[in-house]
Amino acid sequence: MQYTRLKLFILGMKDCAPLILAAIPFGIIYGALGQSTELSAWAVVAMSVFVFAGSSQFIAVGLLAGGAAWPVIVLTTFFVNFRHLLYSANLLPHVKPYSQAIRAPMAFLLTDESFAVASNYLTDHGKQANFHWYYFGAALFMYINWQVCTLVGLFIGQSIPDMANWGLDMAMVVAFIGIIVPCLHNRATLACALTAGVLSLITYDWPHKTGLLFSAVVAILVAMYLEAKQGGMQPDAHISKGASK
Amino acid sequence: MNEVLLIFGMFVVTFGIRYVLFAVADNIEFPDKLKRALNYVPIAVLTAIIFPAVFMPKGEFYASIENPYIVGAIVAIAISFWRKNMLLTVVAGLAAFAAWKWLIIS
Which residues cross the membrane (chain B) (predicted)? Predict the structure, then answer.
């Protein structure tokens, strides 16, 4: 089906809406936590504006509270965000048609959420000529939401001090479940998920989220092995169609 | 603490990781096997993020029917299998989680 650019942009926003809802409490809690550290208010906001990486922002605030020096925090950020390299590698065939002026903002806005929405869309639609309009609809919505929530947390965070203990991270869990479960339709994909999940529990204590990366890589290898055993069956006909040139 | 260096450093490493492959995309062509492997990235990484949140909500392994994260996740998985509807999955999973946390357990 052909969509106009505006329709694609709005479709991206719409598809991202459940993840936006899930991200709202995180942004607010980040703003509230940031406000309680020695960071100045502008630095709390600037981190959301320029870094735009939820989990590493949380870790940075936590490390600051523990008195860590800035190079330690930057190095930790590097390891924690390294999974984004896997995301960009996955999206690579879809960004090749674009100029650097479009690729750079696409990369800047690449988060767990925007990747999850984009990969979901590509699974359903295969390779798309105007993919960037969809992507920017989803990713910019996410970005603006993150900035607003940071500000809200900064200003009203202190009046809801117990918010971090409400279990609001469950919103992200169910949103990701909604994206992954439809992808699990053969032994290779199922084994991939189970391997990644179980290993991530075992390697939870590894520093700088390296356990997460290790678990993901091993899970992918297990899936590839099973895929080969199934006679080269593709993990997902749609994804494969989109990823091949 | 130098706030400017902190934020600039975090920006450089984060954007660098996200952009490096995009920047050189014209000059690299992944082998077929690697392309197929990368198709599993969403499942592998997102699941590796979810499991610890569900089974270790406070940093320690907590596999019990009293753990509301597990109940919410089971409901979300069931609904997602049944309907493949994102919004419905989120609402049902959160409702089950909240009901278990506030009404049943406490």
Answer: 6-25, 37-55, 61-79, 86-105
pLDDT in tens, A5-39: 999 999 999 999 999 988 998 899 899 888 888 88
Read off the amino acid at residue A35.
Q
Domain segments of chain B: what residues?
A: 1-30, 40-105
Give the Cβ contact number of residue A183 at 10 Å: 24
CA distance linking residue A8 with residue A118, whole number of Å: 12
Chain A hits for B97, CB-CB cut-off 8 Å, are: 167, 170, 174
**A151 C-beta neighbours (distance < 10 Å), count:** 17
From CA A190, how far away is CA A213, in angstroms rounded?
18
ipTM confidence: 0.93
Q: Which residue in A73, A85, A180 is closest to B43 by CB distance?
A: A180
Contacts of A159 (CB under 8 A, 6+ apart): none
Question: Taking CB atoms and an 8 Å limit, are A178 and B80 in contact across chains?
Answer: yes
Q: Which amino acid is at A73?
A: I
Distance from CA of residue B36 to its chain's centroid? Answer: 21
Nearest-CA distance B66 → chain A (Å): 14
Handedness of CA A105, A107, A108, A111 (dihedral sign): positive
